[in-house]
């Protein structure tokens, strides 16, 4: 079996998996080295990417650095998800209601809200792991030599 469960990493709590199904399973079996995977997980999951014993042994400066990078990454992803949602919804409304005043008003307003949390999944928006890595690279959250690590 090529795509076995060992290639999937669960995101969220067990009860979420039961109620929302397997859409919360993300395929991490891409072509990333362990160092690349660690850097990616650090940004995506923050301090939760590490075992409790490892976190306990970390010094406070490293913990703060990880938490700071995680927060920046989450804010970046949230704004990006909002931008994609706005683009998709605007194109839908423009196609369905091209002559509506409400549609023309919506198309003008493309502002994102930093305090609004976009809860759509990456899968729903068609975002792949490679897209996320490229976004992190363009924002400077991953090192420029990430591809060679």
Description:
The longest helix has 37 residues, at 60-96. A two-stranded antiparallel ribbon has the order 1-2. The protein has 149 residues and is mostly helical. The chain folds into two domains: 1-30, no CATH class; 34-148, no CATH class. The protein contains seven helices and two strands.
What's a concise summary of this model?
This protein has 149 residues and is mainly alpha-helical. It has helices at residues 14-20, 34-45, 52-57, 60-96, 101-108, 122-125, 129-138, and strands spanning 8-10, 25-27.
The count of domains is 2
Structural class: mainly alpha
Tell how many strands the DSSP assignment holds: 2
Task: Calculate Rg over CA atoms.
Answer: 18 Å
């Amino acid at each position: 079996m090529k795509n076995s469960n060992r290639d999937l990493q669960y995101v969220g709590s067990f009860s979420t998996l039961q109620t929302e199904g397997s859409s919360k399973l993300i395929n991490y079996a891409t072509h990333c080295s362990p160092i690349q995977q660690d850097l990616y997980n650090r940004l995506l999951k923050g301090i939760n990417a590490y075992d409790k014993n490892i976190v306990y042994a970390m010094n406070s400066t490293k913990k703060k650095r990880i938490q700071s990078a995680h927060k920046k990454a989450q804010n970046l992803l949230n704004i990006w998800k909002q931008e994609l949602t706005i683009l998709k919804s605007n194109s839908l409304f423009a196609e369905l209601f091209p002559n509506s005043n409400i549609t023309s008003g919506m198309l003008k307003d493309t502002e994102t809200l930093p305090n609004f949390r976009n809860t759509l999944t990456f899968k729903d928006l068609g975002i792949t792991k490679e897209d996320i890595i490229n976004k992190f690279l363009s924002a400077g959250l991953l090192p420029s030599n990430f591809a060679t690590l």
